[in-house]
Amino acid sequence: MATQFLEMPDQNGYFGEYGGQVIPPELKAIMDEINDSYDKVRQTEEFQAQLQGLYTDYVGRPSPIYFAKRLTELQGGARIFLKREDLNHTGAHKINHCLGEALLAKHMGKTKVLAETGAGQHGVALATACALVGIECEIHMGEIDIKKEHPNVTKMKILGCKLVPVTRGTKTLKDAVDSAFEEYVKDPINFFYAIGSVVGPHPFPRMVRDFQTIVGTEAREQFQGKEGRLPDYAMACVGGGSNAIGLFTAFLGDEEVQLIGVEPAGKGLDTADHAATLTLGSKGALHGFECYNLQDEEGQPLPVYSIASGLDYPGVGPQHCYLKDIERVQYKTIDDKECLDAFMKLSRLEGIIPALESAHAVAYAMKLAQELSADKAILINLSGRGDKDADFVAEYLSL
Prior knowledge:
Layout: H1 3-6, E1 14-15, E2 18-19, H2 25-42, H3 45-59, E3 65-67, H4 69-75, E4 79-84, H5 94-107, E5 112-117, H6 121-133, E6 136-142, H7 143-148, H8 150-158, E7 162-166, H9 173-184, E8 191-193, H10 204-227, E9 233-237, H11 242-248, E10 258-266, H12 277-280, E11 282-286, E12 289-293, H13 318-325, E13 329-335, H14 336-350, H15 356-371, E14 377-382, H16 390-396
């Protein structure tokens, strides 16, 4: 991997001009303590052995790479491959960093882990990890998302976490973040805020990225073993950006691999109902860090929308912002209609029901494949399964 990417972020948590700690001094001390504890514990053989053992025996890693033969035949052109993170325990990539964060919280002697969730995958994964290590868990979730993602809500309750409905603002992910963070600052000494993506103040963008790099590391080795070469394209959906950075990191130094992040265009980029942060956003501060975000003239976050609850966030991980600026990653958009089409096609052609978040990446791969020759290969991070979305989609499409 190229040295410039290995050395990021800098000691202040910046990827170029993005990231950092835009927080009060008293919180900076807490974040620095988390950073120091993370640096110490991640180097130990005990922590690494425990985490790798859980990835293998608990999560079921490595997740396989699957050639989507029928979908490829339908689209024509490039071959489409899926990195099957949907097969992980709890149904998505989120378990990769949740186990790491829960183990770190336990190591630091914290009494409770707090988090936000949109689609509920982070919430389920964190509740699972907290049950496993034996630490109290509290999840804040927007009221709209609670209704859309009811199966995940039920799982979180069964797993023993306290679920806090968020009824203010847009009642979705951004407001859940605000609510969880407000609870966290009541007692940051004893509470641990397990951020669900590569966002937030340093060290969370780095820490979550590090735990998610297992996706790309596995995929790179698996694809070479299966095909004898690297993919021509690697792509993933982007909300906060954890599943995408997890895949991209292993390929950043491979210039022959084109990397594509896919954002939600929602009901259209010409409407207010989208969450295309990197496409239409501008630089500003949000939730304790500098990033591209969708904001009004006064710098306040705009309401955002996506049919996929896990993508409706007005900001994005700082490393994605940097990768956009240096043009190492291209960021594209897919609207709701294209997402639903991909959701149904993958389900009915391959017997794989994807998360609506992941379906955005599948949709763009389907479009791109038609433009490429049959000797080209596209690798998609299928970041989650669509059990949580099945009832919503069936009702939405009147199935």
